[in-house]
């Protein structure tokens, strides 16, 4: 972990154009939300994640 931090601090950052596709922005979220609205609810990964989170909480409470 320390090696990653040291190398990151000692090297120059890449150009913005190179990393642009990997950085989360509000526009990315807005475009993705619009695309997900066209899908049925059972194909929306956000809803699937919420269902999994709720099921996990239920199982943890049952066996705790």
Overview of the structural elements:
Helices cover 69% and strands 0% of the residues. With 64 residues, the chain is an all-alpha fold. The protein has a domain at 25-64. The longest helix has 19 residues, at 45-63.
Poorly predicted runs are none
Mean pLDDT across the residues is: 95
**Gross morphology:** flat
In total, the number of strands is: 0
Pattern of helices and strands = HHHH
Cα(first) to Cα(last) distance is 34 Å
Helix-residue proportion: 55-70%
Radius of gyration: 19 Å
Number of distinct helices: 4
Characterize the biggest β-sheet: none
Question: How would you classify the helix and strand content by structural class?
Answer: mainly alpha
Strand content: under 5%
């Amino acid at each position: 972990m320390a090696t990653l931090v040291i190398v990151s601090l000692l090297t120059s950052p890449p150009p913005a154009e190179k990393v642009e596709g990997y950085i989360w922005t509000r526009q990315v979220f807005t475009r993705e939300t619009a695309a997900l609205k066209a899908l049925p609810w059972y194909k929306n990964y956000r809803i699937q994640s919420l269902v999994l989170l709720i099921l996990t909480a239920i199982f943890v409470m049952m066996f705790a």
